[in-house]
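Why should sequence recovery work at all? Because a backbone constrains its sequence more than one might expect. Tight turns favour small or flexible residues, buried strands favour hydrophobic ones, and helices have their own preferences. The token representation captures these environments compactly. In the example below, the structure is given first.
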């Protein structure tokens, strides 16, 4: 149906208490699986690429796949660049046709984070209908080229979040609230739901200005997801789970079909496993039927 930016599908999500699933993909098979799942569930969806897979395949190829799959899908689809740490590559992907760009300058000082984020916002908005995501505080764990040790992760200060959003003009915003990239080391990770709700209230209390993103979706307990939806999470990022699903499905298939040399059958099996994992997330986020 439509190629959209992230902001336009997150507004109705926040207004109506559900969230958009944002799924990191590394190849065509995962790309198809995410869109197939969203079509089956009639859900708006965000497909994300981290910087390394985007550079490996080239942004032009990622955008060509996106446009081909999204234009024939009867749902809104956004293509997001995840955790990009350079203004140059953010701009390259905006030029190529990504519809949401995340500049992650969170490791820098507050002022430098604002400077870099604003530069990307100004450029993306001048290029077209592209929304921009910024981050404040630091999310622990490993995502693509970014590694943050647990004891170095810093939660976002609510007043600073408001100042950051106002001064940068970001369209959507990921505050660090204790969620982490990768697999959680404990069953009850320390997540600051109240901080998330406070930030959401301060930013979106009087009409929606800047919907919030939850990073580190993999392994979040179901009751945490419910609380984060209540606190205003309007986009949930899921990456590690899909990587595990892909590799595990391929391993399982190859282990039981060791003498078969038919890559198509392997792909169908792995794509199906990924599609099911994404559909499960869409159900948990409440976005089924919202397209
Ligand atoms: P996970 O790898 O923990 O699912 O986190 C994904 C993420 O937040 C990508 O930005």
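From this structural description, the recovered sequence reads:
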């Amino acid at each position: 149906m439509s190629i959209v930016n992230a902001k336009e599908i997150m507004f109705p999500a926040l207004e109506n208490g559900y969230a958009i699933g944002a799924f990191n993909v590394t190849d065509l098979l995962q790309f198809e699986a995410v869109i197939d799942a969203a079509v089956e569930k009639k859900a708006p969806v965000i497909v994300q690429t981290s910087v390394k897979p985007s550079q490996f395949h080239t942004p032009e190829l990622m955008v060509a796949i996106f446009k081909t799959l999204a234009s024939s899908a009867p749902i809104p689809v956004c293509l997001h660049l995840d955790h990009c740490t350079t203004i140059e590559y953010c701009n390259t992907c905006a030029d190529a046709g990504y519809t949401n760009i995340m500049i992650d300058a969170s490791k820098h000082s507050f002022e430098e984070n604002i400077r870099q984020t604003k530069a990307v916002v100004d450029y993306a908005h001048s290029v077209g209908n592209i929304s921009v995501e910024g981050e404040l505080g630091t999310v622990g764990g490993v995502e693509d080229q970014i590694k943050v040790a647990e004891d170095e992760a810093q939660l976002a200060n609510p007043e600073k979040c408001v100042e950051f959003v106002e001064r940068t003009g970001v369209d959507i915003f990921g505050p660090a609230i204790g969620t982490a990239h990768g697999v959680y080391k404990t069953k009850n990770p320390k997540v600051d739901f109240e901080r998330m709700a406070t930030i959401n209230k301060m930013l979106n209390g009087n009409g929606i200005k800047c919907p919030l993103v939850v990073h580190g979706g993999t392994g979040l307990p179901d009751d945490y997801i419910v609380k984060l939806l209540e606190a205003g999470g309007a986009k949930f990022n899921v990456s590690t789970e899909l990587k595990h699903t892909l590799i595990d499905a391929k391993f399982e298939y190859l282990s039981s079909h060791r003498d078969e040399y038919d890559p198509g059958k392997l792909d169908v099996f792995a794509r199906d496993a990924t599609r099911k994992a994404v559909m499960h997330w869409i159900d948990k986020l409440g976005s089924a039927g919202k397209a």
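A few observations help interpret the result. The two ends are 9 Å apart (CA to CA).
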